Amino acid sequence: MSPPSRPKGGSGSAQREGPPVTTAPVDPTHAPRKLKLATVSLAGCFGCHMSFLDIDERLFELLELVEFDRSPLTDIKTLGHCDIGLVEGGLCNAENVHVLRDFRAHCKTLVAVGACAINGGLPAQRNHLNVGTMLTEVYQVRAGLSPTSRIPNDPELPLPLNNVHPLHEVVHVDYFLPGCPPSADAFWSFLTDLMAGRTPHLGHGLIHYD
Ligand code: SF4
Predict the structure, then answer these.
(1) How many CA atoms lie within 13 A of 185 on its CB side?
(2) 48, 50, 53, 111: which to mutate for ligand 1, most atoms within 8 A of CB?
(3) Which of 3, 15, 36, 197 has a Cα-to-Cα distance from 28 of 20 to 30 A?
(4) Rounded to the nearest whole angstrom, what is the distance from the C-alpha of residue 49 to the centroid of ligand 1?
(5) Residue 97 Cα, ligand 1 centroid: separation in angstroms?
(6) What would the pLDDT profile of 41-99 be if each residue is shown by its tens digit?
(7) Do strands 107-113 and 82-88 pair parallel, antiparallel, or not at all (unpaired)?
(8) Alpha helix (H) ranges present in 79-144?
């Protein structure tokens, strides 16, 4: 895994990045009657999901067009074959990488949603620190800890990565929806374009970082 790098041109409109993309926009003529949509939060704060929910009454319109698959909004834990996968957050541990690869394998169109998914965001601020030093500081050195405090090492805990990575460093990403978080209007504009088979384009005023 190569060290994190910033994607080019981080703001403006929903963007395709990197090498030529072969995945076409969702084609409603070949899709099920309702498109299947999955969402997940990796190393993120759920702010992007909250902003998605801010489309408010347009959720009813969305539900006419899509059926939710795995998502924190449905609490479905397993992923079926989907038309669109929205991924919030970057990659900070081995489980994040596993879930992202699963999304890539099951979603025709994969979207990196928000700054954390696109460039690592706030969690990537730890990238200039040594993970072992950080864990020692938090669990063993900090004032007020019990003398028996230890770094958690349960085998069920996902192993932290040395660096926090954006999604495109591990899998191919079809679209990037910028913002922290992207606004509800940006979500709606992006999704309505995608569901109609158009290349998403965010008009002026839909990109901002609150
Ligand atoms: Fe939270 Fe912003 Fe990251 Fe979205 S991009 S998960 S709102 S910190």
Answers:
(1) 8
(2) 48
(3) 15
(4) 9
(5) 18
(6) 999 999 999 999 999 999 999 999 999 999 999 999 999 999 999 999 999 999 999 99
(7) parallel
(8) 94-106, 114-119, 131-136
DSSP, res 54? T
Neighbour count for residue 164 (Cβ, 10 Å):
25
Distance CA 101, CA 186 (A): 26
Question: Which of 11, 51, 88 maximizes ligand 1 atoms within 8 Å of its Cβ, making it the mutation to test the pocket?
Answer: 88
Do 106 and 71 form a contact (C-beta atoms < 8 A)?
Answer: no
Tokens for 168, please give them: 């495109």
Atom of ligand 1 nearest to the CA of 121: 3
pTM of the model: 0.83
Letter for the amino acid at 64?
E
User: Which among 110, 6, 116 is positioned nearest to 51, based on CA atoms?
Assistant: 116
Name residue 209's amino acid: Y
